[in-house]
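Support request from a user on the community tier.

User writes: "When I paste my structure tokens into the form, the page sometimes reloads and wipes my input. The last time it worked, I copied everything first. Here is what I submitted, just in case something in the input itself triggers the reload:"
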């Protein structure tokens, strides 16, 4: 995940927000591409903005800061973290209304299974025209998935409460999540990471699921989980020798080049 220096985001009502999306680049508020926007999405985000800003301010946080998302299939939660100085702080834990399948990775198109792994979302993956209220594509399959010939497409975090491999958050909560992501990307964050885990990867849970055929894969995922837990910094993650390689380094999150890692 990479970002430029934090910039202040401005949100305007209705169609004014649509015009503002193009202004970010022209006046130098962001160096990354601005996420797409339309009138409907602008109005939905503006509706969520007062309650979201109020909650952020009560927690000493600000809309437009870089974000990081963690998803846990068990107990069915999505966490949004915001960058504060050089580390990330948990803003809010959202309940997942629906996801598909069971603990374990997605293997192929049509298996009705939600993926697990380390993903990244750029502005181009934001979808204001979603049939499921608002959505963003998490980037499955990534380089690791493709190296194992795993297939599938259009795996989203979206509104509503039905899933065929995606993570459905309800419309109400999705408006907040989408606004947090849109504001971060508009403010200069080049991309944000989405880490998807089967469960909270404590030693107790790892022992509980030790007989699963996916335990080796989950031990690899746990390396990324532990790196963030220990530092509250989003690790740089590469793929080599059929495994995720975890580098607990903030170069990308604090503005390093994409050249600092191989793409997932």
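"...and here is what came back when it finally went through:"
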């Amino acid at each position: 995940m990479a970002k430029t220096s934090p910039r202040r985001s401005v949100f305007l009502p209705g169609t004014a927000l649509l015009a503002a999306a193009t202004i970010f680049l022209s006046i130098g508020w962001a160096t990354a591409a601005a996420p797409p926007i339309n009138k409907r999405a602008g109005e939905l985000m503006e509706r969520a903005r007062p309650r979201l800003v109020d909650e952020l301010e009560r927690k000493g946080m600000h809309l437009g800061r870089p974000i990081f998302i963690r998803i846990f299939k068990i107990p069915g939660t999505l966490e949004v973290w915001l960058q504060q100085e050089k580390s990330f702080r948990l803003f809010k834990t959202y309940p997942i209304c629906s996801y598909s399948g069971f603990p374990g990775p997605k293997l192929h198109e049509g298996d009705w299974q939600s993926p697990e792994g380390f993903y990244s979302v750029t502005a181009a993956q934001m979808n204001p025209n979603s049939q499921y209220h608002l959505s963003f594509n998490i980037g499955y399959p990534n380089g690791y998935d493709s190296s194992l010939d795993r297939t599938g497409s259009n795996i989203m975090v979206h509104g509503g409460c039905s899933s065929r491999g995606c993570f459905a958050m309800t419309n109400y909560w999705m408006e907040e999540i989408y606004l947090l992501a849109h504001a971060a990307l508009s403010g200069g964050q080049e991309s944000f990471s989405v880490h998807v885990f089967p469960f909270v990867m404590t030693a107790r849970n790892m022992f509980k699921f030790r007989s699963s055929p996916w335990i080796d894969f989950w031990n690899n995922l746990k390396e990324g989980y532990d790196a963030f837990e220990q530092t509250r910094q989003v690790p740089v993650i590469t793929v080599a020798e059929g495994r995720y390689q975890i580098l607990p380094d903030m170069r990308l999150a604090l503005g390093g080049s994409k050249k600092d890692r191989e793409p997932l």
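Agent notes: The reload is a front-end session timeout and is unrelated to the input. The CA atoms of residues 18 and 38 lie 6 Å apart. Helices lie at 14-26, 39-58, 143-147, 171-186, 203-208, 215-231. Escalated to web team.
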